[in-house]
Write a structure and sequence with these properties.
This protein has about 140 residues and is of the alpha/beta class. The protein is built from six helices and six strands, in the order βαβββαααβαβα. It has a four-stranded parallel β-sheet.
Length: about 140
């Protein structure tokens, strides 16, 4: 089974989910992408607004420092069996909102928040991944 995680910018939530699933199970092909991958926000590099993602994940023994955000495409959605989206539904392209493969996880965007908020988001995603693994039907 191939599982794709999607959030807005593919800088935090979807990469966290991808990393946890890869850590907890080797039997799935896993990737992540963003609906609106940005290089800048408010005139500054996007990494500034997610500067707590890497340290929060390092606390879990996972290094995301070399990850590069990827833009979601229709082909990606077509090529995966399950798509888990953590972006506001108003940011979904038509091909995503019409797909029967999509599950929505209501996980807040940690952009511009502190380390403690990033930890809460990380832990929410970690728990969702553990639940997904218990309930997934390959």
């Amino acid at each position: 089974m191939k599982i794709l995680f999607v959030c807005k910018s593919n800088f935090a939530r979807s990469q966290i989910a991808e990393a946890f699933l890869k850590k907890f199970s080797k039997k799935y092909e896993v990737a992540s992408a963003g609906t609106m991958v940005e290089k800048e926000w408010l005139g500054k590099p996007i990494s500034i607004f997610h500067n707590y993602v890497v340290p929060a994940m390092l606390e879990e023994g996972i290094d995301l420092s070399q990850n590069i955000p990827k833009q979601l495409t229709k082909e990606m959605v077509d090529n995966f069996d399950k798509v888990v989206v953590m972006a506001s539904k108003d940011l979904w392209p038509d091909y995503l909102s019409k797909s029967e493969k999509v599950d929505f996880w209501d996980i807040l965007d940690p952009r511009g928040t502190d380390l403690e908020f990033h930890r809460r988001v990380r832990n929410d995603i970690k728990n969702k991944i553990k639940s997904l693994l218990k309930n997934i039907k390959p």
